[in-house]
Structure formats: structure tokens, C-alpha cells
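Running log. JK asked me to keep both predictions on one page so they can be read side by side. First protein, sequence followed by its C-alpha cells:
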Amino acid sequence: MVRRTRAEMMGETRRRLLASARAAFAEKGFSATSMDDLTAAVGLTRGALYHNFGDKRGLFAAVVEQIDAEMADRARSLAAAEDSLWDALLTEGSAYIEMALDPEVQRIVLRDGPAVLGDPAHWPSQNRCLDATRTAVTQLLANGVLRPVDIEAAARLLNGAALNAALWVAACDDPAAMLPKAQDAFRMLAEGLLAERADRRA
């Protein structure tokens, strides 16, 4: 029998706690989930949770980070199928908004996330999304697709528009009905940055 290293055992404990927490937070929400809900289901102790994540909020932050990173990866994979960087940017933003229909995303990331962790603009995962948007805006500006605009301002507004549209869709009474309205508005706002007669194939 192969003995596992301490690092491997710790990694396995973290994965088990994350999986348990993800299921519990999706089903019950942050406030209604107890410490025992998070540990008993996977046969671990509170000590394991404290050691790996500090407390329930720390574990929740790790779950949000995991899901938000998956959302970004999913959006980027859809954007990669587009023929132009401009279309990829629109597709990525629109896809992120659409994920507000996913019950797990809706409850953990878009509803409980801001209430527990504060402004999403300060989450590490959102900062990585901002970095990617900033890079895209820089290239589009260099290619003449966008009118002269401050790169940082444009990147932050595009990122913020997609995020806040997703937050709105998740919070409304009929998310499915609101989704196309949010996506259309996002596209129109983004198109305001286009240079006249721009070649969108760039």
C-alpha cells in the first residue's frame, strides 16, 4: 500500500471540505449552514475546517473563488469560438450574465457572496477577470476597433456591467425573463465604445 504524503492528505482534506461546503451552501445558503453540516458529511472535524480555512466564512470564500473561477473559464471557452476579439469580448460578458440562471451560481456567488464577502469588485477572481478584460481592451484599442478611451476605465466599466447584470438577474423575481434584457443592454453599452466604421473582425 502506497503511503500518502502529508501534503497529499491535506490537499484531500481541503477538496472534501470544499465539496461538502459547496453542496451545503447551495442547498441551505450561508446563514443556515452549520459547522456540523460542513464537516459531518465528509467525516471530518471542526479542527480540520479551522486548520484549512480559518472559519466558516473562510471556507465560503474558497467556495466562491472556486465557482467564480469556473464561471470565468466557461465564459472564456465560449468566447474562444468567436472569430474576432470584439465578438469574444461580447460573448464572454453575455455568457457570464447567463450563468446567473444556474441555481448554484445564483445562490452562492451572486446572492450570498456579496452579503458575506462584500463588494465582488474586490474578490481575487473578479480581479483576474478585470485583468483579462483590460488586455482585450488594450488590443482592441490598438487595432482601431474602439474609439479613444481610457483603458482602465473601459475595462472596469465593461467588467462591472457584466457583473452587475448577473447580480440583477439573480436577484429578480423572474431571472429567465430578465436575462435577454440584461444581455441586450450589456451589448448596447459595450457597442458605445466602438469606433465609427470599425472593423469588428479585429
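And the second, directly underneath as requested:
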Amino acid sequence: MTDYGRELQFGVFVTPSPDLLDNSYAIAEIADEKLDFIGVQDHPYQKHFFEAWAFMATLLARTERVRVVPDVANLPLHNPAVLAKTAASLDVISGGRVELALGAGAFWDAIAAMGGPRRTPGEAAQALRDAVQVTRLMWSGERSVKYDGDIYRLHGVHPGPQPAHEMQIWLGVAGPKLLRYLGGHADGWLPSNSYYPPEALPGMNEQIDRGATEAGRDPASIVRAYNVFGEISERESGEPFRGTVSQWTDDLTALAVDTGMDTFIFGAPDDDLTQTRRFAEEVAPAVRAAVAQSRR
């Protein structure tokens, strides 16, 4: 059992679809009132999606409090120096309401079709490590920075603007080496239950903790976020992330106190507004109360 004692955070996954635009605005309104995060997937090659950063900028402009995070940014189709500048710019404009989550890439045929690189797993991992270093330098406030990475390089660029707050870098990674790298160099982890079920999380968290310890960092300083796709219903279910508010409360409470996850971003079927409202108004407060009781 691992509970890092971190404050719980809750969010909602919003699909950047033109067909769901009014619904997305309604979800953003709920999130701004009751949740901590809006997560937006970044798949530029998907013809039915908006460009993620344009969509995130719009959501930030329509809200006042909630934070927005790319879930996760598609690194192969974004230059990391420009991406860092975009994120920092939106952070300043929004008053410190952006975090940056990076992914090494997937769907390589689609990426290549859009003019992006087709990377091997090793190249994708190195590109992600380079991107973290490039991002830190672009946010550094230094007059001029250089970086000679294997994939990405900086040659005397003048970085800026600096983010309005200490913006975090989360990584959507899974392999042991990248998890250990995350523990030593990044600020958060963002997997999804559709790829990594609850039983896989403890072993993965152990790798993050190992990397943090080896780097002299406190493992509890690292955000453990989890995209949870499922359905809230009136009927009990034997499946995780499907069932009643009480079942959801038990599932997420167990993930927090037994597995160490602290941030839950809910993805409802078809971005259902009623489901989102139930998560924000019923599930999230119940989980906060149950975790607080467990910790006492």
C-alpha cells in the first residue's frame, strides 16, 4: 500500500470535436465551478478534431479558475521549443492555469502522413527526454540557452516568456526506463485506464519512486494523475469504472490510498454532460471525504 498523502485533484476529459462544441463549453463551465482540470487530447491528424492548442486557448478564455492540460501533447508533431513557448504564453495569458503533459507519440502512420517523423521506440524515448530538457531551458529566464540533444537542439536561443507559475511537466509514459527518468526529471505521470488498469499501477509507481530516489527527489513531490474512462450508472457492476456513485467512490478511494494516485480525470461516454455533472457533484466530493477519513 502506498499513499503519498498528496492533495486530491479532479478533472474532466473534453473531446476537441466541432460536433461537440456547445457541449464542451457546458462541460468547461461545470469544470470551472467544481473541478481542478480540463484535459484535452492532442491528435492533429484526426480530421474530426480541432487543433488542441487552439481549443485549449478557447477553453481558457471562457473560464476563470480551472486549469487546462494537453492529455497528452503529441511531441512528434510539435517542435518542443515552440511548444514550451506556446504553453508558457497561455499560462501567462490565463493567469497561471496551464500544465504541460508530453507524450512520445503513437499512431506513426498518421504522424508520418502529416509530415512528422516515424520514430523507433528508442528514438521516441530520446526525443521525449530531449524535449523535457528543452522545455526547462525555454522556461528558464536565462538570456541565452544552448542544448545539444540527440533529437532536439537549441543554439543560443533567447527563451521566454517565463510561465506565470511553476509550470509542471507531466509525462504519459509506461516503460521502466522512462518511468525512472520521469521520477528523476519530470513533475507528474499521466497514464490512462484504457491502457494501464489499476493492477498495473503499483509496479509502475515503484519505477517512478526508484528514479526519484536515485535523483535525490522526494517521490511524494510527483503528481500521479490517471485518465479514468467509464460510466456512472444507477446499477452496480462488477467492472471497475462502471457502476454507481458508491462504486466509483470506492474505486477511486482505493486508488488514492492503496496505489498512490492523486489526480483523476474523468472521461464520460460521448462527453455526456449528465455523467460529467455527477462526477463533479457526487463522485469527487465523496472521494475527497473518504480519503480524508482513511488518512485520519
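Observation for JK regarding the second prediction: The mean pLDDT is 97.
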